[in-house]
Design a protein that fits this description.
By secondary structure, this protein is of the alpha/beta class. The chain is 31% helix and 20% strand. The longest helix is centred in the N-terminal third of the chain and has 15 residues.
Amino acid sequence: MLLKRTVVFLLFVLFSGNVVVYAQENSSAVDTHFLQKGDTIHPIEVRDLKNKPYTTPSIGEKVLLIFYPDPDNPSENDYFVEQTKQWKFPLDKFHAYGIVNLKDTPYPNGIIRFMIRMLRKRSKREAGALILTDPKGVVQTEWNTGDCNNHISVLVVDKTGEVIFWKAGPINEEETAYVIDELVKRLPEARKLTAEELKAMEIND
């Protein structure tokens, strides 16, 4: 089921402490008004899993990874996830969370929130994941991201809130390798997870 796959994707990546960063440049003058490297983002108000207001945390404080997935296309960045999940980054300097794009999916918002809550109850590790929701597309309007429909979008900012990566779409092998290198440079305490650690974070069907 596509919806369940998206939820599992978010939980796995957030718990493994993975971070991805690629210095993406806009390719034409037409889209330079959209979010890009060098811009600065600000906190915005989205919703939590009970549909209560929640302000996006840690902006301007830590290296920050935000996944912004459309539940309709959960397998878009499988290779990217497989490679980046092998790394662990220090939580005192890094925060990862998801904001589910509910605006661009036909799935009922209540069902998506319910499934996420149920999956988070499987273990103490999963219970700690921060997953927010965006039923009105606030991320797209407030951060000027452009169209995010049908994408697993990825945003990374440094500890000042400056954008060092934004992409709504698939991340290729070259980008993935570059991304990992950039994160290790910014977070030198990073280390590769052992096989045992990776197995412990697997989410069973």
